[in-house]
Amino acid sequence: MTDLIDQLNIRAARITRKIASLGVLLMLAIVLLTAADVLLRWLASASVPGVNEIIQLCMAVAITATFPAGVTSRANLTIDILQRKVTEKFHKNCSAFGSLCLLLLFGFLAVRVGVHAQHLSERNAISLFLEIPQAPFIFTVAALLSITTLAQFVVFLQDMKNALANYRELSDKGLILVAVFSLLAAAVLVSILGYMTEYFVPTALDYAGIWVGILFILLWIMALGFVPIAAATGLTGLLGTAVFLGNGPALSVLGSEAAEYLGNVQLAVLPLFLMMGGFAAQAGLASDIYKLAHTLFAKFRGGLAMATIGGCAGFGALTGSSIATAATIGQVALPEMRQRGYSAGLAAGCVAAGGTLGQLVPPSTAIILYAILTEQSIGQLFIAAIIPALLAIIAYMVTIRTVVGFAPDSAPSNNEKTSLKEVLQAAKGALGVLVLFGLVIGGLYGGIFTATESAAVGAGGAFVFALLRGKLKGDAFWEVMAKTTAMTAMIFLLIIGAVNFSFFVAISGLPELVTGFVQNLDVAPLLIIALFLVIYILLGSVMDPFPILIITVPIVAPVIADMGYSLIWWGIIMVCVVETGMITPPFGINVFVLKNIAGGDVPMHTVFKGVLPFVLADLIKLALLVLFPALVLWLPSTM
Amino acid sequence: LNFASPGAPRASMHSQVFEPWIDQIVAESEGTLNIRTFYASPLGNYNNMYDRVLDGVVDIAFATMAPIGGMFVQTDVASLPFETRSALEGSIALWNLYEKGVITHEFDDIKLLGLFLFPNSALHMSDRSIRSLEDFRGAKIRTAGKLQSDTLALLGGSPVTAGASEIYQGLSRGVFDGTIIPWTGIAPFKLEEVTQYHLNAPLGSSIAMVFMNKDSFEDLPTVAQQAIERNSGRSLTERLGRHSDQDAAAIEQRTRQIEGQIIEELDPEEATRWRTELQPVIDSWVANTPNGARILSAFREEIQQLRSTEP
Ligand code: NA
Ligand code: NA
After folding, report:
1. Is ipTM > 0.85 here?
2. Cβ contacts (< 8 Å) between A54 and chain B: which residues?
3. Among A95, A72, A86, which Cα is nearest to A165's?
4. pLDDT tens, position by position, B205-216
């Protein structure tokens, strides 16, 4: 007899992939439209008024179309520090619970975005310039969210099956019954909670501190209990807002914030930069840039390691992810270094550290997230990151020289000589990368493009490269797109959770409380900054950058602004410090990625040991940026 | 109750109008009211404030009408170019239309507390001056909405879309040569640094309101309701209109003192030509608005009456 739940899963995967493909094609159309608008403005100095309104409405639909596929491919960010500390059975139970939480969140979202669309339709809401009716688009978003909810139900079934596998032989039909029953139980629980919150609303402000404490503990229990971050922040935010403002307003905020951020023009850059990175990797631009760096640094001892840093920086200019950078460059550089006699520690260490350049060198998804959370300009933040990124590159190179100096056996001594001709040839090969980077960052700095436009031009350019090099044949195009959609779904879900959580934080009065507390401390602002940084380094040792940003920025940024510091500067500091967390023990994703590529013969502690000098370099760089804010702020001030 | 304004925390409207207004209401409510204020974004922004109040997330709010697309077509009469001379007269005239029921149904879903205009938008150019219709040829000028775009296109310029926060950069890089914005928008974005030629021409105003969630109002004890009503309506409208004129005048005065800044008034003869060119904007508003012709003439009557009673 065929397995019912497995079959459901297969069918769900097939259908959701089709929906995601439509979304992706819509995104590609947006890319082309934007690029055309840029060209038109450049050539004919005319612009189509209201292009951003089309982007806004279509992007909301395109992004939501990636959600069902994201759900079936389980593209969630979960904190799994405790995974090895608990039994497998417990972990499976938690996962099923996490799945249920996500299911609840999607259910709420689908209904409330639908209600929001209904409101828009009732008052004939139209866009400002083109006067496009907004309701049909938001209804489509709500429909896609309903499909996502169904897809998540199938995922939930599978997780229930995994969790209950050890109990006794339950038929799939029995399992579905159990799942529906637990869903009903959850609904009852939510209703009870709903009644309770209404009771608390009138007095909530008087006990704001206590409520914030309770909700933060709840958030941490969920997050550490393997509930996806998006669900943990989204549901805590919803509950917190309900306690302070009541159920109706809280649900209304959930729906309208989701609709608003899905159609946020600034955020449209995210999938576009993800797409650019995907096409760039597919086109082989990573190995081009690595080859160029190799010819440039070959004559130094440790040259291949330096070339790796150069390659990471170059690829980092095309992608907004540090994991992607570590993985992509790692696959090329690690075998090469090992083969030439580099020690495992130095080889893996420099790729893991170099990977963080994927975020620091613009474009950067962490910077985009920060910009959204603090309402700062993405363009200015990108430009502000350039000098700190250069500083990081120099610091890493110096680190390699120092390591090779102290431990001569970590790198081979046979230096290679490269002729100018070879360098030029490699440069010609890497022309694509240089052109793309020049277009995206140069256009942004020069004010020719907005952030959205530069992302569209970058994605379009990388697409053309991959196409011309014949790298998009067969399934390759869809594979790149599948990765893009999975990342898009994951990050946007995180953002929806994050904005609801920050809404609750903002109305709870916590930022004012913390700001007041810090003001009363009466210590030098620099000391407070130092204290924050120590906390961030500790958090970074066990957590991913995104959850750290999402949970702390709404509270910390007002304090920083209140002390008179620039939020642009703080954004760069934040990205630096959370990225260092990617390579610090015990939990550093980049290190895990490298461990994966290196295979079984390199133990984890060797990689961590190898990465340690780079962590030191990071700390020195951080100190410089804190002491000399001009390193961050000067370049954007010349824009 | 909570009061939310999407404006920047240090905006003068907050300290000079809203805060005294709220203090007064709270004082008169005999301890039945406690109003918490939120400035800048936490509770809502210009785009979603109207929905936030409807849904009861925010109780009392300040919001501009333009982003609430499709809702306040009749009210938009006050935003038309060459109709008003000051924010004050426009604000009061608009409030009278509302009170007399000439504008129907647009405010049915909310409790309206005050209605006002920002001062007329003026032309602020970076490196070329505009004095006559001919000067518009080839001028790329940033506009904020459909009405402004149409206005500018009829005058002969090329409208460019950009968010308010992008004006400074756009002007300093020559993406556009100027912008249409009231004087009150110059200071917050430091536009005096990137513009030099200013022309005071009544190119239309944006409308804003102070309003309240209906249920929040009805749930209040009578003494609190009375405190709010006593301080709202025409008196709040007047206060807001007057403040917005004073604010604009102060910024204009400050800019005038900066070396190299040239501020001119639109020549009366030119004004007649501009008005003729802009007739299609008026006609299309009248054609697309229920009861448009009657509202426009009523609005003009109100304005005439105000001008005749004022010295
Ligand atoms: Na990057
Ligand atoms: Na770490």
Report:
1. no
2. none
3. A95
4. 889 999 999 999
